Each structure stands twice: as C-alpha cells, then as structure tokens.
Amino acid sequence: INAEYGEFQTFQHYFKQINLRQDMFRQIILVLALVALAQSRRMRLVPKWARIPGGLTRCSIGARGVWGVNKNQDIFHMAGGKWQHIKGKLVHVSSGRQVWGVNRHDNIYVHRGGHNWQHIGGKLTNIDCSNRGHVWGVNRGQQIYRRHGKGWVRIGGAAIQASVGFAGVWVVNKAHDIYHRKGTFGDRPGNGVGWIHIPGKLQWVASGHGLIVGVNKNHDIYYRTVDPRHPVGTKWVHVPGKLMQIDVHGNTVMGVNKHHHIYKAPLAKA
Q1: How far is CA 226 from CA 43, 126, 158, 183, in A?
Q2: Residue 18: what pLDDT?
Q3: pLDDT on residue 34
Q4: Strand stretches in 21-64, DSSP E
Q5: How far apart are CA 189 and CA 240, in angstroms?
Q6: Looking at residue 139, what is its pLDDT?
Q7: Looking at residue 113, what is its pLDDT?
Q8: Do the beta carbons of residue 131 and residue 125 sit within 8 Å?
Q9: Angstrom distance (rounded) from CA 166 to CA 231
Q10: What is the pLDDT of residue 28?
Q11: CA distance 40 to 209
Q12: Whole-prediction pTM value?
C-alpha cells in the first residue's frame, strides 16, 4: 500500500509539473501576442484640434510628459494641467525617457530633476530622445549624431532636424527631403544601416508609434501610417490645420503654429 501511495504522489507531482509548464507556456504566448499586437499598431491622425493655453515656439510630448520653450527661451513643463516654469534657457527641448535640450549657443543639456540641468559635451542645434532613451541630433553643419555611452557617434548623411521613436529614426534635410534610417524601426539601438528616401517635402518630422507626423514649409500637416511590415508606410495623408512644429506620443499629437499657439489632437486606429 505504501508503494502504491508513493507512486500516486509521484504521478501527482508529475501532473502538477505539467500544469505549471502549461500555465507558463500560456503566459509566454500571451506576452508574445501582446508584443505582436503592440508592434502591429497602425494609427491615423484625427484633426480635432484643441487649443492649449500658453505660447511656445517648440513643444515636445513623450514619456516625461509635455515640455516646451517660448520665444524668450524660457522652459516650461506641464504639471497638473498647468505650465510650470523650469529654470534655464533653451531653444529646443525633447521629452522621452529623459528630457534633453539645446540652447542658442548649441550647448546640450539633460534634465536631472527640479531645476537642475547637466551640461553634456558636444554641440547640436536639434536633439530628440525616444521613450527608450535613444538620443539623436544634428549640428549647425547638418551633421547627424547618435548618443552612444558618454559620447557621440557620427552617422553618415546631412539633416537639419531628427526624430527618434518607435517608428525609428526620421530626418529632414535643408531641401526638406525626408529620410528614414533603415534598421531603426521599433526604437532599436544602434546606428542603423543606411537612409531610405521618402517621397514628399517636410520641414519637421516626428516619429510615433504606428505613424509619422510632419509639417511642410507652408505649415500644412501630414501623417503617414507605418507598421513592422511597412516601416516607411505607403503615402502621406494631408489633414486640416496649420502648424510650424509637431510632435507625437501615445495617442496624442501636439504642435505649435506661427502665432506660438499650442494645439493637440487625438490618434485613432487606421
């Protein structure tokens, strides 16, 4: 009887192990399905523009919230629905995993909380930080750089503005030509493997999750739906409105117009 009971316990333990493995397998499948769903996200811009109080020349929306700078180079952060003034002077700011910015002397800074900014070596006129902490920028000579460790890696090509996000790295050059960095879709680390020219003309571009948004020299607004199978999308879609600068994060697009008015609009599934 004892031997039979021992065999029963062995079988019971065996079946428990099988159930545990099945539960683990189901959890892995669920996680993989959620990852696949997130990566297959395809979005479109819904031009229901709502004005936000305040006046900015540049705005940024990302993992660190909404930030911006005004014509006097004052820095602001949206907290509790109100603009909070942050000490310092910048001409451009980017909200991602960290908040980065550049001043009128092309000096680079990263926010360290409160009113504290840390100066970072190098010179850039434009900078962008993704939600995964990847930082790209361009300098006054239109050279493109990627942050690597405690330094900068120069990337071939020329641009006046760069954006890095889940849709990868996108830039525009002085002729307002648009390029996507191959191998960066999904906000991947690394340099990528060359530039893909995208038809159209834009003066500012922003890389989001499931779409790209941009504005041209006439301040017309466009978006381009993208996904892992079509990392550069197929066409630009024009939407009503006028903005001179634009950014995107989550399900929200934000931008400023020539009057320094701030607007936001929602995204929806494409």
Answers
A1: 8, 24, 24, 14
A2: 63
A3: 46
A4: 43-45, 50-52, 58-62
A5: 35
A6: 98
A7: 97
A8: no
A9: 10
A10: 72
A11: 9
A12: 0.86
Structure tokens at 218: 């006439």
Q: CA-CA distances (angstroms) from residue 64 to 18, 56, 79?
A: 43, 18, 11
Distance CA 98, CA 191 (A): 20
In the sheet where 82-86 sits, what is the strand order? 58-62, 65-69, 75-79, 82-86
* Count helices and strands in the chain by DSSP H and E runs: 1, 25
d(CA 165, CA 25): 31
Cα–Cα distance, 139 to 268 (Å, whole number) = 35
Distance (Å, whole) CA 151 – CA 146: 9
Q: What's the confidence (pLDDT) of residue 47? A: 97
Closest CA to 69 of 100, 90, 83: 90
Rounded to the nearest 10°, the torsion over CA 156, 193, 161, 107 is: -60
Give the pair of three-digit tokens for residue 110. 């990263």
Residues of the chain falling short of pLDDT 70: 1-21, 23-27, 29-39
